[in-house]
Amino acid sequence: MTDKSATLNVEGTDHSFEVRSGSVGPDVVDISRLYAETGKFTYDPGFTSTASCESKITFIDGDEGVLLHRGYPIDQLAEHGDFLETCYLLLYGDLPTKVQKEDFDFRVTHHTMVHEQMNRFFTGFRRDAHPMAIMCGVVGALSAFYHDSTDISDEHQRMVASLRMIAKMPTIAAMAYKYSIGQPFVYPKNDLDYASNFLRMCFAVPCEEYQVNPVLARAMDRIFILHADHEQNASTSTVRLAGSSGANPFACIAAGIACLWGPAHGGANEAALNMLAEIGSADRIPEFVARAKDKDDPFRLMGFGHRVYKNYDPRAKIMQKTTHEVLGELGIKDDPMLEVAMELEQMALTDEYFIEKKLYPNIDFYSGITLKALGFPTNMFTVLFALARTVGWIAQWKEMIEDPGQKIGRPRQLYTGEVQRDYVPLSKR
Ligand code: SDX
């Protein structure tokens, strides 16, 4: 027992539990023996005070608005690196050397095609299917095509599956978009970088050459970096829980996509833009802010608030800067939604309710404006979030699988239903 411990008195008996410290951030009280010793569970719906695992990948300081990936601040990674460098960092734990980066980029680039028969999946969907519904189905089906990389006990297969997903998500996302607008799929090109390849697969048409705008490609790449990983958020926890049963990595990522879709999580970028469109003009902001504060109104300001950040989401600041760069490059001067967003942000940041509840803009607040300016429809916004977050899900899944202490996740409950009672025959009911 370390010299740091916590004592819990349960029905007159003291029970001592080890307190463990990380390299930074809150200590944890190891209560894994609590039930064995006291016959009692902890109760923490939403896991507001629960550490589900030990991890070395991402650290968030919600009070200070800090986000580190393997120790590197998100603003430095977004400023100086590219998305595949961040992928390497998340997967391997260190920034790549020049040779390692070239090798990793080559391997990812040469896995971007999908099995030709996957095209047939898309024709089974209605054209108006939400692209996230398509992503859930097609990504889950990857295990049907790449069965040679589903043995999670094999380190080589784990890395192959990881690379395949990082490489193929842009292709599948672009196919989902193309299918939804009735245009032919565009194959990846190996002489383009990751973000440029994705933009071309989304926006090129067979009738003419597509020229990638380097400013927009850089902005897309930076948006991927900002969404890459975020500690034990809902979708990452979903991937970890799915993976804890030994499910194959493709199925685990499909589970993460399904969870991310929710408007309280990754679906907030689509919901935030729809909200800005509904507000329409700055003079209607007070009406919506009042609704957000009204306990009887389920309406919330989408793109505001966060379970962990009780300060400005550091990604939102970089996102806001990227928004202005993209609008500037595209010559969009007075985007009405940007005006509403900036006015709404100012109003919320000075409103007592938002100050007291520590509600700040999160990454989803500005991302929608940028993605719309880049040419994406709102129903593609969460697809782009899932594309970028795949590397985070994979890195966290690998860390969990490679943890020697790993076991299947199986929470308990506080049961408040009927106690045992005897069956009543139908004739007597
Ligand atoms: C993402 O976890 C992650 O890391 C997620 C993410 C990632 O990268 O993976 O960062 C990505 O999901 C960002 C969040 C995107 N979601 C939204 O923007 C949707 C709007 N935000 C809310 O739904 C909410 O803020 C959450 C879900 C994000 C956080 O909810 P919590 O932590 O459970 O907080 P809460 O619901 O308990 O809110 C605390 C209080 C409540 O009031 P009281 O009950 O205490 O009186 O603040 C209020 C809430 O009513 N509140 C809001 C609000 N968010 C919280 N009131 C108005 N508008 C909001 N947006």
TrEMBL record:
SUPFAM superfamilies: Citrate synthase. The active site is at residues 306, 364. The keyword Transmembrane does not apply. GO terms for cellular component: cytoplasm. It holds the Pfam family Citrate_synt. Pathway: Carbohydrate metabolism; tricarboxylic acid cycle; isocitrate from oxaloacetate: step 1/2. CDD domains: EcCS_like. Keywords: Acyltransferase, Transferase, Tricarboxylic acid cycle. It catalyses: oxaloacetate + acetyl-CoA + H2O = citrate + CoA + H(+). This is Citrate synthase. GO terms for biological process: tricarboxylic acid cycle. Belongs to the citrate synthase family. One of its GO terms (molecular function) is citrate synthase activity. Gene3D superfamilies: 2.20.28.60, Citrate Synthase, domain 1, Cytochrome P450-Terp, domain 2.
